[in-house]
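Annex B. Sample input.
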Amino acid sequence: MQQREQDASPLSESRELPKLSLIYEQHPLYGVDLFISGKEGASDLNLLRSKGITTVVNCAANLDFNFVEQPQVVSDHEGSVYGPGEIRYFKIGLIDGEGNPETHMVAAHYILRAALEQVLPEKPSYPRRERGSILINCRGGRSRSVAVVALFLHLTLPQEFPTLVDAIGFVRLRRELPENEWYKAPKPVLANAASWAADWIRKIDAAQ
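Annex B, continued. Sample output.
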């Protein structure tokens, strides 16, 4: 982990975050790259395609995307467009602060795992079967997505990230978050929720 931390450093206060950040390259359990972005990166289909991203996991309750764009298979019923999207899309729906149920972060971890492990059937109604890299996003890519990815890294790679604090520190650096934002990236309530969730997820996985 020390080598990975040396490869990234916080941005100065005056610079914006990258549109898309590679957080972890070739996760050993899944063989894919993990990215984080805010709304700007997650909404840029050309950028996602250029990075081999085939799946988006949206952590935000107050943000949605329409990845449906094939005219021959798209329907518009009473103003609501639906059809198979260009990207496989999962929604967690966390609030960036108080208000999430205690189990919400537990669900977030399992949704992220499901996005990586789900195997789609060979049917025309499931046209997006590609298994590429994955993007985890929230509105700014600073808090909700950081907490969820840190929790995932801590639980799936415990030898590299033995504590949640280790994982959060690593994600902050890879996301290039300015050090003066670390107190709110992620928000303390979300970091506490991730810590609580880690304990419960270990118990759930051990019981299976």
